[in-house]
Specification:
The protein has 290 residues and is mainly α. Helices cover 77% and strands 1% of the residues. It has one domain (4-289). The longest helix is centred in the N-terminal third of the chain and has 24 residues, at 36-59.
């Protein structure tokens, strides 16, 4: 009980997800000597992730307050609105400050995923459509999350280290693909968690279309694809055996958690357990590499 309150702040306040983005970005930097610019990038990734996810909470606050389907996480968010606002403002300030320390190629590369990331959190006007958040478009949310996360945690790290040309290397394309597949796989459980809330808001997702059990199988299949793509990377010498084993372990842990999903799962199972698989992947890779 004593630990529950700080855990809620850490998880529901989006600090875990921000640390996860740093961990995955650091994985993309392994194998090359870290520079001051790389460290600035990690700080930027942390605070920009915190900013986007807190803006998403702020934008959804009105809907949460009037929703009849509020979970423990939703109640915490509504109760701590000022806390969320404070860290959104702080994250904005730090993110802008860190942008000035990044290379020009990195800033250019950041433009498109940055716009899409903000469009995920805050409403934008699309041609011929009402003002809407991109996450509310049918089946768009999960593809957008996977692409933006792979772009931020793989693309930004590579561009900051070696320039835009680095993205054209086959080994980096495979890394981008495997990262996007992994993120897609572990995002499906969150759509399962939010099924009732998304249905109330008429947001179409994979679980709303295929049901919970089939959605779990889709997630498991994607984790298999992730292992297969990691094997290909290892076979071509794009990662070593220790890193491959670590990635397999993280995928198996993720698969076990997916299999455990049922209607009785608590909020922290998703927000701490499933999100924590990204930290697990980072930690296991570092452990086995050492």
């Amino acid at each position: 009980m004593l630990l529950r309150k700080p855990i809620y702040y850490f998880v529901f306040g989006n600090f875990l997800i921000a640390f996860s983005s740093v961990g995955l970005t650091h994985l993309s930097q392994l194998g090359k000597e870290l520079t001051t610019g790389d460290l600035h990038l990690l700080v930027f990734v942390f605070f920009s992730t915190l900013l986007v996810y807190n803006l998403n909470l702020i934008e959804g606050m009105k809907g949460l307050k009037s929703s009849a389907f509020r979970s423990t996480r939703h109640n915490w968010i509504v109760k701590h609105e000022k806390f969320i606002w404070a860290f959104a403002v702080l994250s904005l300030i730090v993110s802008i400050a860190e942008l000035t320390a990044l290379k020009k190629d990195t800033l250019l590369f950041l433009l498109v995923p940055g716009v899409f990331a903000l469009g995920y959190a805050v409403p934008i006007k699309l041609p011929g459509m009402k003002i809407i958040r991109l996450r509310e478009l049918p089946f768009v949310k999960i593809f957008l999350v996977a692409w933006v996360w792979a772009t931020f945690t793989v693309g930004l790290a590579l561009v900051e280290q070696s320039g835009l040309a680095e993205l054209l290397q086959p080994k980096n394309f495979l890394l981008f693909f495997s990262r996007a597949v992994f993120i897609f796989a572990i995002t499906i459980p969150f759509d399962i968690r939010d099924l009732t809330y998304d249905s109330d808001k008429h947001i179409a997702t994979i679980p709303s279309r295929f049901g919970i059990e089939k959605s779990k199988y889709i997630s498991l299949f994607l984790l298999f694809i992730f292992i297969a793509s990691s094997f290909v990377r290892c076979n071509f010498g794009f990662c070593n055996t220790h890193e491959f084993c670590a990635l397999v372990i993280s995928a198996l842990v993720s698969a076990a958690l997916v299999l455990m999903i049922n209607s009785q799962c608590k909020e922290l199972f998703y927000s701490l357990g499933i999100e924590g698989t990204m930290i697990i992947q980072w930690a296991v890779v570092l452990l086995l590499r050492s």
